[in-house]
Every structure is written in C-alpha cells, then in structure tokens.
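Journal club prep — side note

Before the paper discussion, L.F. wants everyone to see what a predicted structure for a comparable chain looks like in token form. Sequence:
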Amino acid sequence: MAAPVTSPLFAALSDIGLRRQENQDSYGYFRGEGAAAIKGHLLVVADGMGGHQGGAVASRLAVDTIVGLYRSTEAGSPSEILREAFRRASESILQAARQKPELASMGTTCTALALVDNHAYLVHVGDTRAYLIRAGRIQRLTADQTWVQAMAAEGLITRSEAERHPDRNILMQALGTPTPPMPVSLPEPLPIQANDTFLLCSDGLSGLVDDDELRELALADPDPQQACARLVELAKARGGDDNITVLLLKIPA
C-alpha cells in the first residue's frame, strides 16, 4: 500500500569518530513546503576525501550543489534532476581544486534520495550507502562502486570476503575526478509503503556495523534521533576509525 510522504520523521547525526582530525562527511535534507511541496523530500550524504580540508570542502560542495539544484529545478523527473546535479557538483569540485593547490585531488562519494509522490528516487556515486527497511527486513539500495565490489560482482570473491577485504575502500567512482563519474540510479521509482524506513550513511558506519545490526538499531527506538545516536555509538565502540554519518527517514503508519 502506498503511503504519503508529507510528514515523515527525519533525523541525522554526523560524528568525527575517534581517529580523524576533521569530519569530512557532509549531509543535507530538503523538505518541500508550500509552493515547493511538489518537490517532496531530499536526503543527501557525502563522504569527502583528498587530504586535510579538501575532503570536507568537496563533500560540502557536493551537498550544497545537489540540494540547491534540486530545489530550484522545475523541469524533469527527480532522477534526471539529481543526475544533472551530480554532474554539476563534480564539475564544481574539480574547478575548486584547480583554483586552490591545497585542495588538489579532493573528491567525494555521494548518495541522494528523493521521496516524491509516494515514490523514492535514488542517485549514487561511490560507497556511501542507502538502505530500505521494510516489514522487518533490510535491503541495500546501492552497490559500492569500489574495486573490491567489482571483483565480487564478477564472482572472483564472495560478498563476505568483499566486506572484510583490506582494499575495500578503493573507489572506482567519485565526484570531482577528471574523468566524469557515472552516477547509478534505481531502474524504476520505488513505491513507498507505510512504516518504511530509509537509512543513508557513510562507510564510517557501514564498514563497522553490518546490515542486520543497522536494521535492528534503526528500528529499536521510535525516536529516529535516538536511533541515529545508537548507531554512531556502536561504530565508535568498534573503533570509530573514520567519520560516521547516518540519516534516517521514517514513513508513518
């Protein structure tokens, strides 16, 4: 049964973790209201890279560009708008890096989820992840664009081996690279159901907390902000070796 997305519960939390000197993750949330209600809701998470300051600049540029373009663009489907927003974000990051030597080689992963007219639209680059939790089960909506995941897709290693592989963070796609990235979208808009929970996160969470644990903690507390806090706490208890960012959006019954 389709569910309206006019009043979902949203929460987010970003933490520097225990071993980094700077938080290079960024996130954004846009809720269409009034005349912009037709735009629905947009969630974006980005995980920057590129040395001191560069990663934070790249991820913030990506989020601000994507949210801004999505908010202001009227023509096109949500997926089309987001794909164009990803392209512009990548160009903006690359241009900024060229103008400031200290930002050279910066880039970012990014995942954006739009909820419009009872459907979900997803666009993704890199290894930030999006999940759908429905009827007590968790489904990964994204596939990591990494070298290790490509090996797993070809059957060279198993999925469990990919999750533990020492090179699992080597990216094949990112925003801000000289070679234009190739964002991935869902094949079709995903119908939304009552009680659905959407979870977006950086690999500082997904690298330390497995899918079943994400599901369990996301559903453990009716307050999504407390659920975010529990997820971050678990990642930090397991070492917190990267920045940790999680976004939760719960569709009411």
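L.F.'s comment for the group: The chain has a mean pLDDT of 91. Keep this in mind when we get to the figures.
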